[in-house]
Write a structure and sequence with these properties.
Length: 122
């Protein structure tokens, strides 16, 4: 797995204290909407979002490590991530069966670990 802890929410992100669930929230990349949260987990060191992209990339899902989340807005029901649409679209294809397995998560870590880390570093 990548050196940086890609699978942990930043302490500056509001809402990661499990006070509410982000399933169903819209997801905004740095350059626009990419879909909605289909699944979210808040396990320490293993947190992620599964985003249903709907028609944007032909109804596919993507797995985003928790560290990509920069802000959660409960009033607007939006999650903001620090990646562009193209960066997300070019990421590893979602593995519907094995997305919780370490080999798939390592592939996702290798991909997202190449990008600058943290909010505003793109």
């Amino acid at each position: 797995m990548a050196n940086r802890d890609l699978w942990t929410f930043s302490p500056t992100v509001t809402g990661t204290n499990q006070s509410f669930d982000v399933v169903g929230y819209h997801v905004e990349a740095t350059d626009g909407k990419i879909g909605s949260v289909d699944e979210a987990t808040y396990e320490v060191g293993e947190s992620y979002l599964v985003v249903d992209t709907g028609p944007w990339i032909f109804g596919k899902k993507v797995l985003l490590p928790a560290s990509t989340v920069t802000q959660i807005d409960p009033q607007e029901r939006k999650v903001f991530v620090s990646r562009t649409k193209d960066e997300i679209k070019d990421g590893p294809e979602f593995d519907e069966v094995g997305y919780k397995e370490s080999t798939y998560r390592d592939k996702v870590s290798d991909y997202y670990g190449r990008f600058p880390y943290g909010p505003g570093t793109i």
